[in-house]
Every structure is written in C-alpha cells, then in structure tokens.
Request: fold
Amino acid sequence: MAMTDGNRSYSVREMIKENKKKQSGQQFMEWFMPKLLLLTATISVLTTIGILFTLLFETFIFFERVSIVEFLTSKEWLPWDEKTGSFGIAPLVTGTLLTTAIAMVVAIPMGLASAIYLSEYASEKARKVLKPILEVLAGIPTIVYGFFALTFVTPLLQKIIPSLGIFNALSPGIVMGVMIIPMVASLSEDAMSSVPNSIREGALGLGSTKLEVALKVVLPAATSGIAASFMLAISRAVGETMIVAVAGGSSPVFTFDVTKSIQTLTAYIVQVTTGDAGYGTTVYYSIYAVGMTLFVFTLAMNLLAQYISRRFREEY
Amino acid sequence: MEKLIDKQRVVQHMNGRLLRNNLLKFLFFLATVFGLIVLIVLLYRILTQAIGWLNFDFLNNFPSRRPEDAGIKAGLVGSLWLMVIVAPVSLILGVGTAIYLEEYAKKNRFTDFIQTNISNLAGVPSIVFGLLGLTLFVRELNLGRSILAAGLTMSLLVLPVIVVAAQEAIRAVPNQLREASYGMGATKWQTIYRIVLPAAIPGILTGSILALSRAIGETAPLVVLGIPTFLAYLPRGILDTFTVMPMQIYNWTSRPQADFQHVAAAGIVVLLVVLILMNSIAIFIRNKFQKRY
Reply:
C-alpha cells in the first residue's frame, strides 16, 4: 500500500517513521520548555537571595570594624572622619521617620478622602476620568518631584515659615506625600469597592445618609484593606530616594525639627555613592549596613501589609 | 392625638445630617482634585522654567559646564541604550516566569513561595537593587559602569511588575481556547505558544511598556552603580559607560548656578515627553488589540 504526495510516494511505514521524527521534536519541547520556564521563574528567587547575601555579607564586614552597639545606640553619624568618626544609625533613622511621617500626614487623609469620594460618591463616568489622572501622579519620575520640591515648594513654604532652610524635611515630606496619594487612594478604593452593595443598601434603607454609610458601614468593613494600603505607603515613603536626596539635604542630625536640613537612609547611600568614598573604606561598607536597615524596615512593612490583608480580610 | 411622624422634627433632624453629608462630600471631592491641581502646577512650573532653553541645540548638545551650552544628547541616547538591555531581558524573564506560574506550576508550597517572593520583591526600595547591582554586576562580574551592568540591574527591578502584568494577561485568556486546542490534538507547549501567548500579547505589552517607562524614569539604582553624569561621547556597545536622562537632571539640579535650574527643567520636559509617548503607545495597544471574550 502506498500513498502519493505530489511526485513522491510514501509507504505507510515511511509515514510512521516521518511522524515519529516530528513527534520526537515535539516531545523534546514538551520536556524542555517547562524546565526552561522554571529556570526563569527561579531568577526572582535568586534575586532575593542575591540581595540578602550581598547585604548580609558586606554588612558583616562593616560590623567587623564598627561595633554593632555603637551602630544601634550612638546618636552621632559622622562617617567621614576615619579616626574620630562615629557610626550611630539614629540620625538617619529619625531623618527617614520625619520625612515619612510628614508624607503620611499628607497622603493618608488625602488618599483616604479620594478613595471615599471615588468609591461612594463619584459617578461611574467621573471615576473613569479621575482615577487615571490620579495615577499619572504615581508615574512621574521621582527626580522630577525632587526638583519640584527644591525649586517650588521650598520657596513657597519659606514665605510662610521664614526660618525654613533651603534643605529641610518638610518640603520633600509634603511632595512625597502627594506622590503617594494615588497609591493609598487606589488600594483603599479597591478595598471599599469590594464591600457588597447589599450592605450599603441596608444602611441606606434604614435612613442613613451617604456619609454615614461611608464612615460607619463601608469604612469599618474595609479596614483591613485600608490598613494594608497604609503599610505599603509607609514602606514606599521609607524607601523613596531622589526626592529626599535632592530636597532634604545632607545633614545627619538627631532632630525632630522639620525646618532643618536632615538626611535619610536612602539619601546617605546616594551621597556616598556619588562622592568618592574608595572601595574598601569603612564608609563604603557603611552603605550596606544602612541598606540592610532600610531593607529590614521596608520588608517588615510589606510583610505586615500582606499579613493584615490576608488575616483580617472579611469575606462576603 | 399626637402625630406619629412629625415632619418638622424630621426635617430638623435630617438637616444637620444632610448638611454634614454635603459638606464632607465637597471636602472629599477637593481631596481628589488636590492631586490634579498639584499635577497642573508642577507641569506649568516646569514648562515655564524650560521655555527658551528647550531647543534643537539642547537635544543635540553634550553636557557642558556652561548652562547655555548644556544639552541632553548623551542622556537621551543612553536611556535608549538602556532599553536595549532592559526590554529583552526583563520581557523574557518576566513572561517566562508568568507562563510557568500560570500554566505549568502545580498549586504547592514552592509555587506559593515564588509568588510571595515576587510580591515582596516589588516592595523592595529601588536603591537596594542598586546595592545588589553594584556588588554583583559592577564588582563581582566586573562589568564596570556599563550599559550591561545597569541594564541587568534595571531588569531585575522591573521584573516583578512585568510578571504580575503577564500573569493577569495569561489568566484572562479563556479556558475554552486551550481546550479547543487540546481537542485538536495539540500538545501543551503548542497550545501555550500558538494559542495562549498570542491572545495574551496585548496585555503583556501594555504592562511591559509601563514597566519600561518606570525603568526610564528611575534614578536611584543608577546613582548607586556610579553611572557618570558628565559624558561627552556616545556609547558604541553594551560594555561602554553611558549616562541617562534622570542622572543628568539630578546633576543639573545639584549645581549652584541658577541657570542650571532652567537646564534641569528643560531636561525634565524631554524626559516627560518620552514617558508620555511610551504611555500613549501602551494605551493605544490596550484599546486597539485587547479582545473581550
């Protein structure tokens, strides 16, 4: 028996052979591709391991030279003097907390208010216009915000507070808050929108105003999602770099005065890496210790956010 | 007989509550518009500062110590070069990871671990990626302050964003398409490669372009890598040193001469135009090619 294909004729045996050849290629792909894709998936795990390993390893070298007690308890951060230098992380931490706190004072009420408006009051049309515009704020490069803080917000604030320095904690804090508004708004809105309408209608049917529904019914029901969005916002503010590096100054001082120049954890890393601290100096290794502090801090916040939204989520 | 419902009392009671409702509604609206107002002020400020400084010479000049001669050419070309590495590396790794997680991975603890790891990685500050890049790519692998080192660092930074976008796009492909393909005798990989991926491509592309525009605007990791800001030549290969627009802008903002503020503003306008272009492409793809099943 034979089949004709154009001018050539195949016997069935040949056809089977041909098919087998094709299939062995296919089988190879079926075997190979999952393994290749698994490999790409492990890259993200390797990245995390790489970050942890790098930070731990270099931080370890740093702590061979500087005692960990000094790092955690000293209130002076004077890294540049090799002899009398002092490495106390406190001033950088207070600088970071100060700008973060200011950012949260702006971002949390503004973001939450926007979320309430978008999810409870705005019409479908208004939401479709307002939400993407808000998200543009989040897409602007942070260096642009830094420039804006330094050349516009600081001079503006100086008219109100004459004692405000050119570099201060207030101005970058406020601008950072504005940058974070969309994040709080969008995540909180998601949490509030997932509260089912039947609950709202129940409350409205009992004679509540929309405001009472929003504040006394929807908000409590969405608490976990909203709290998680706050945690992520704090983490974002702690890790933000260019705004504080441009407009916050470079004075690691243990202060809670928002009008003074400060330095944050991230701004210190920028200062060292743009300067010429030689490879192998204590200053060089100090950026890893600072980076480690930053990493631990933001990781804790992110894990907390995940835990809150998982553990306390209300299922309807 | 006393009336059960006294209209006057109801109105009296309700008025205060309704007033509060309307007042707060207005405040909530103001808060929503506040971001918009800041955005307009920001753009207006930067445009008025940049006007007069933004011309063809600015696009075609290398950096200079004199503000009137300074230009963004090195940064503009450098940013494009950066994409030469970031786009393929992050796309291949990101889409690969997404396909594995959505199509192959079994629901077990290892899969959960990868997934949690990706969402945690998305929350790691960009400057920490800079530290990783400095140690791993610049020092250990000896790539120097090259396009390759910076590109790999940026790829890892935007990887989580691309993975999540690609996962969503793949998940949105309806199962009937897969089943039809299997029914025709196609194998798993054939189904993924010929049916699932083409259907998911618009979603993947939209997410990826947004991730790439994030990479173009990022400054912090490149500062840590020690990318120079003052380069008077263009890179010729991926192992050359280079600079990018945000780095040049950062350098200009920190110069004492007042005129450099205008140069920085002009640089920001160029950067924003590039970002707007990329975003419009993403929106165009989303609107044009996204199918609804």
